[in-house]
Design brief:
about 375 residues; 60s Ribosomal Protein L30, Chain: A; 6-stranded mixed beta sheet
Length: about 375
């Protein structure tokens, strides 16, 4: 059975190899969504001015429309991640988020991205929703069936925090443990962990903290350098957990892995693939971004095969570039590996754990992903 495609002409035509959203079973993944119309025009009608409020308003409208095509609404949203080009615009976004999703209370993360693939876009979001699923919400953690979503910084927004990275890291883990605990999960139940560090020089300290916190069964993991929601925060954590954790997966080829955490973790039908770089394992690579993208994809596919899954099982990807001038080369390498109908994706700018790395790819897959439902522009 092939993927089912729902066609629409109401949202922007993709400028690269991606669709808008995917539903597998009761779970929906919405890829990067911007404040544009179907003709790629950014919302706002003031010449020479980027209208963040108009873009954010249209962004939420677009997200709601696509969710509706897949049988969901904002009330089903369990996780939201928002990327803002200029975090001075956060108060504008916060007001519109409160109007659209404030009463719902999803797990909510805000980070910075120095621009987006569409020039002059000021803001994007992606999200996860769960339909026909019992949902328990407690503060910044949400349990949707057997999946738990939670996130934490080192302190409450606006409150004083410790100055050192190690102390902030400890505080963030404590806060994350408390939030997961409120919905019945523990740190050991985490199957996928993302860290955003405000300064790339703190990445080695983060990798050491991750290894110390999970010495025997680490989650699939990702680390990216980008602005955090609070100027004093040196890191922010996002977690997906499942009761009892999951099964670590190694590449089918037996190739050594050098990323943070496990290469991937499988739980029930889901496979969470941690961040894969395209540079050489030791970070020493003179390859351009297209070659690195192809290599990162090859590593993702090697891990998929280790779980017994085909490339078509991929539900979504999350991609980080270090320079927007690499976007065309990235798309050339990406398009050579992704299959139609393309999975939704998010592509942002950030710092990576090796100086030679030009691209990072992480993926979420499912054993029935080849039979998922996709929303795609006609």
């Amino acid at each position: 059975m092939a993927k089912r495609v729902i066609y629409t002409d109401r949202v922007m035509r993709p400028i690269a190899h991606f669709s808008h959203a995917v539903r597998i079973g009761n779970t929906i993944h919405l890829g990067a969504t911007a404040g544009t119309d179907a003709a790629l025009r950014l919302a706002g009608d003031t010449p020479g001015r980027v209208d963040v409020a108009a873009q954010a308003r249209r962004m939420f409208e677009n997200a709601g429309y696509v969710l509706g095509l897949l049988g969901a609404g904002f009330e089903h949203v369990v996780r939201v991640k928002t990327y803002i080009a200029d975090l001075r615009d956060r108060p504008v976004y916060d007001a519109l988020f409160a109007a659209s999703l404030g009463a719902v209370g999803p797990d909510h993360t805000i980070v910075g991205s120095a621009g987006f693939p569409l020039p002059q876009a000021a803001i994007e979001l992606d999200l996860v929703a769960a339909v026909d699923t019992p949902i328990r919400r407690h503060g910044d953690a949400v349990a949707a069936g057997n999946r738990i979503y939670g996130s934490a910084g080192p302190g409450a927004p606006g409150a004083p925090v410790a100055l050192g990275f190690d102390r902030q890291c400890d505080a963030a883990f404590r806060r994350l443990a408390d939030r997961l605990g409120a919905v019945g999960a523990r740190l050991d139940d985490i199957v996928h962990l993302r860290a955003t560090v405000a300064d790339s020089r703190d990445i080695p300290a983060w990798l050491a903290a991750l290894a110390a916190k999970f010495p025997s069964r680490p989650p699939a993991a990702t680390v990216t350098a980008a602005a955090t929601a609070e100027p004093a925060w040196r890191l922010h954590l996002e977690a997906v957990a499942a009761p009892g954790g999951g099964l670590p997966i190694a590449p089918a080829s037996g190739a050594p892995t050098h990323g943070p955490g496990s290469p991937a973790v499988q739980v029930d039908g889901d496979l969470f693939v941690g961040a894969q770089l395209g540079c050489a394992a030791d970070g020493d690579s003179g390859d351009g971004v297209e070659a690195q993208t192809r290599r990162a994809w090859a590593r993702v596919q090697d891990i998929l095969h280790g779980a017994g899954l085909p490339a078509e099982a991929v539900l979504r990807t999350d991609n980080v570039l270090v320079d927007w001038r690499d976007y065309a080369g990235f798309n050339a390498g990406y398009g050579a590996n992704a299959t139609e109908p393309y999975p939704p994706r998010t592509t942002v700018l950030g710092g990576l754990r090796h100086a030679a790395a030009r691209v990072q790819i992480e993926a979420t897959a499912h054993r029935d992903g080849a039979r998922a439902t996709i929303v795609q522009v006609r």
